[in-house]
Structure formats: C-alpha cells, structure tokens
Amino acid sequence: MIRRSPVAVAAMILAAMIPAATPVGAAPARIVSMNLCADELLLRLAPPGRLVSVTWLAAGPAAIDAGPAAGLTLNHGRAEEIARLQPDLVVAGRYTTATTTAMLRRAGIPVQLLDEATSLDGIRDQVTSLAAVIGNPDAGVDMLARMDAMLAAARPAPDDPGGMPGVVVLRPGGGVAGAGTLQDEILTAAGLRNLAPDAPVDGDGRIGLERLLRLKPELLILDSDGAAPPALAREVLDHPAFRSRQAGITIASLPAALWVCPGPWVAEAVARLSAARRTVLARRGADQ
After folding, report:
1. Which of 48, 153, 160, 283 has most Cβ atoms within 10 angstroms of its Cβ?
2. What are the phi and psi torsion angles at 29 (to 5°)?
3. Alpha carbon of 122 to those of 116, 126, 129: distances in Å?
C-alpha cells in the first residue's frame, strides 16, 4: 500500500476541483489574489471580469478603497476555497503560507509570488511585471504614467527656497521610518528631510518622547488615519512635555494604507506630504 503525505493527498483532491489548464501563452481568465498588496494592484490592473476573488482585507479598513472589491468573492487564503474558484492564476505574497502555495502548485494551479517593493523603482518593476503576467501590460504603463505625473507635480522645484524641513513619521507602535526605507524615499520625494535616521531608537525600533523632542522636527506625521484606534503615536500628542514644545511643530496624519502596501498610490502620499511641507513653510513665514 502506497502511503501519501497529507499535502499530497490534499493536492490530489484540489486537482480534481480545477478545470483543464489554460493554453500556453493565453492570458489568465480567472485570477485570484491571496495577499492584500496583490489585491490593491490587481483591482487596478486586471481587465474587467478576470479578477474573481481578493482577500477579505480588500473590503475592510486596511484597504485604500474598499469599493472596488464589491461584488468579488472574498477569500481567507485557504487552499480548498481557492481551488473551488477554479483559477488559472493565483497571485500570492512572497511570505504567504508556503504550505498553501505548495498545495496549489501540486494541484496544477499556477502561482505567482509577489515580492515587496522597497523603492519607487521597485514599484515600477513590480507593476510592469505583474501587468505582463496577467496579460495586460498597457494597464501597467498607464498606471505608472499616472504615478510619475503625480510625483512630478508634488516634487518641489530645484530652486525652492524652503529647503527640506525636518520630519519624523510616527508609526502606530511608536516606531519610526528609518534610512533606506520606501517611506524615507517618499519623504525625500516630497521635499522633506527624515530626521529619524539621526535619532537613537530602542531595541524595538521605537523613539522615545525625549529623543523625539530633541530632534526638533518642523513636521510630525502620524502614520494612521483619523478613525484609527488609540496608539502610542497619538498618546505622544497628549503628553505635557510635548504640548509645551509643540508650538513650532506642524502635525499631519497620513492614511497608513497609502504606504503599507507599496504601489503607485504612494504618489498620493507624496502629494499629501508635499502639501504638509507647504503648510510648514507658511507657518515658518508667519512666525518671522
């Protein structure tokens, strides 16, 4: 008697649930996403009717806009429910459960793993690659053209006299955006100087109130939206030491969804940060 592993048995069951393979070279007609960041890209790149399912996160507050997910089947990333949708392409994150993606592949379902983009150039490469995989390269070209146009409009002119105001981004857990991160590049694109790389942080990558005030930022960005639950980043604002020193600090909130998942929508983050920079410069002029 041949004994098969549970994964092999599950793969055999899954294989019985899927249709014949898509002809080689044909664009996938039934695409399923198993990752929020893949959701966001595919909702904007996939031709109408080809994206059949996204994760449940795409219809919730973590999404940039929950509207586009309306009418699609929502999944929780389980192999059985994915196979039942009869996809001819599944897009998953690089760190999506390896057991699930292995089961899908053994069942004959193509799986495309999506790496996390860590720079603006990385976003361009990711969009171009994914648009090609789903057979809609023109959509990728259009998406990137819109991103680059928004970035160009938000970028301060080379001769802008305002310089680069110092900024600190406070994440919900009290962490900060460090050097070499996508957030750091986004701040630079908006004409801001990230002060966090010059600040010592604790073992969890968080910055204390005293260290924050010592940096003397002109702009403090809360990496959350107004409807977010209380977090350490917001508790800082209520501390007496902060309130006594906040006269020269402009405070702005930025929806975390705009840069939690790297994608062309970070251009909107740059635009909002650029507007916050203009507020800082106007305040600077009023104080003189």
Report:
1. 283
2. -100, -20
3. 8, 6, 10
CA distances in angstroms from 43 to 31, 72, 78, 79, 205, listed in the order given? 11, 10, 20, 21, 33
Residue 214: the pLDDT is 78
Query: What is the reported pLDDT for 104?
Result: 93
Look at the chain and count its residues.
288
Note the pLDDT of residue 239.
65
Distance CA 17, CA 140 (A): 32
State residue 219 phi and psi, 5-degree precision: -135, 130
Mean pLDDT of 185-192: 95
Please report which confidence band the pLDDT of residue 175 belongs to, taking 50, 70 and 90 as the band edges. low
Q: Which two tokens stand for residue 7?
A: 């994964």
Name the band, by pLDDT with cuts 50, 70 and 90, for residue 132.
Answer: very high
CA dist 63 and 58 (Å) reads 5
CA–CA gap between residue 36 and residue 41 (Å, rounded): 9
Find all residues with CB under 8 Å of 180, minimum gap 6, and list them.
Answer: none
Q: Which residues contact 4 (CB under 8 A, 6 or more apart)?
A: 12
Structure tokens at 36: 């929020």
In sequence order, which residues have a C-beta less than 8 Å from that of residue 183 and are 6 or more positions away? 169, 177, 194, 259
